[in-house]
Amino acid sequence: MLFLALRHLLSRKRQTILIFFGISLGTLIFTVISGMQLGMREFITSRLLSNTSHIKISARDRLIDKVEITKRFYGDDAHVHWVIPPYGKREEAHIIYPQGWFDRLRDDPEVLGYSPSLTMNCIITRGASRYPATLSGIIPSLHERVMNLNRYITAGKLSDLSDGGNKVIVGTGVLSKVGAQLGDTLLVSSGLGEQRPLKIVGTLELGVKQVDETLMIGALRDVQQMNKTPGHLTEIAVALVDMDRAQAIADTWQLTSRDNVESWNQANAQFLQIFSIQDITRNVITFAILIVAGFGIYNVLSIMVSQKRREIAILRSIGYTPRQIVELFLIQGIILGVTGAVIGLVIGHLINRYLETITLGISMGLGNHLIISYAPSIYITGFLLAFISAVLASILPARAAGKLTPLEIIRSDT
């Protein structure tokens, strides 16, 4: 049966080659586009999850409300018209009862780890110049269980901050801006007191320019002292055993807390929406190409059934059943689909290898080359799309061939 199917395909070489080209083009485009999009998605996701915990518990700003102020000072029945209504914050934002969160997170079996932190804006003084920056205080031993920052540290290590001592790890962009080097000391001020010297014990590069040029990480106790807010926290980062449960868990915690509780997919909803749009675009393009290739397979096999009527009559006369005739033409469609898919996947893989070597004009964090994904799901999906479209396009011509009888063929030819 396979020999006959190959003979039929080789008898119309031009049409067969065109079908191979159509199917190969569809799988090739799917492989290249998927590799580029998923590669960029993996890059962005790794950055998001490196800088964003599964759940973030953050301080809620307590804004001054003129209605609340009016009721408190003048009573519920007072009619007060404010020429300039009160505004601003009641106090610096901080988590109201951190110890309660620590007890809750420590006893929750779905929590893998948590890391308290205090983030403050500061000014770096270097000679006669001043530079704005963001200083984040953490506990390294706890932070390492929540976010994998060590992979982005280019010098030193996160545990260097464990014993405090006014040490800091800074973004590579900060070093460039202030003209400092590893081992130098920066004068940092929070605006609430005198400048404090912080020794640079490490550098990190996340690949996000705005972050690398402003981020500094120190020990939590040092940052609290500098900010003159001992015991205060602005955020608790939480890592879960199952990150897909982040949304449901965050919603449950929010019901019983006055602090903000936000899951990682809530915080990055815009990026996730972009990913969905990319998936739709990629699938529409590939589906359209494979539809065209499917119609090509249908036309070729339909013409082949018409031209091979005499051969079909001979096969039926020597004992071939209608089911075997159907199998003969289905095998031809499967050969077209499988061969075209394999060729397209191989060429697409080679193109991706080439694209990965192209140097870009921007830094991607781990290099300046285009990031390509080689996930097995890309190749499996591309092969299945081509295979299924080929089989579906072969069904009608195969069934038409199986219904032909020797007598009908002889009468039609006569």
Query: Mean of residue pLDDT?
Result: 78
Radius of gyration: 33 Å
Binned, the helix content reads 40-55%
The largest β sheet comes out as: 6 strands, mixed, barrel
Beta-strand residue percentage: 15-25%
**Intertermini distance:** 29 Å
H/E series, N to C? HHEHHEEHEEHEEHEHEHEHHHHHH
Low-confidence stretches: none
* Total domain count: 3
Strand order of the largest sheet: 2-3-8-5-7-6
Number of strands: 10
What is the number of helical segments per DSSP (H or I, 4+ residues)? 15
Cα shape: elongated
Derived from helix and strand composition plus strand pairing, the structural class reads: alpha+beta
Give an account of the 3D structure:
By secondary structure, this protein is of the alpha+beta class. The chain has three domains: 2-48 and 271-413, no CATH class; 60-92, no CATH class; 94-264, no CATH class. The chain is built from 15 helices and ten strands. The protein has helices spanning 2-11, 13-51, 66-74, 98-107, 140-143, 172-178, 209-212, 220-227, 246-254, 264-267, 269-307, 309-317, 322-355, 376-403, 406-413, and strands at residues 55-58, 111-126, 129-138, 153-155, 167-171, 185-189, 196-204, 215-219, 235-240, 260-263. Strands 2-3-8-5-7-6 form a six-stranded mixed β-barrel. A hairpin with a 2-residue loop joins β2 and β3 (129-138). α12 packs antiparallel against α15. The longest helix has 39 residues, at 13-51. The radius of gyration is 33 Å and the shape is elongated. The two termini are 29 Å apart. The model has no long low-confidence stretch (mean pLDDT 78).
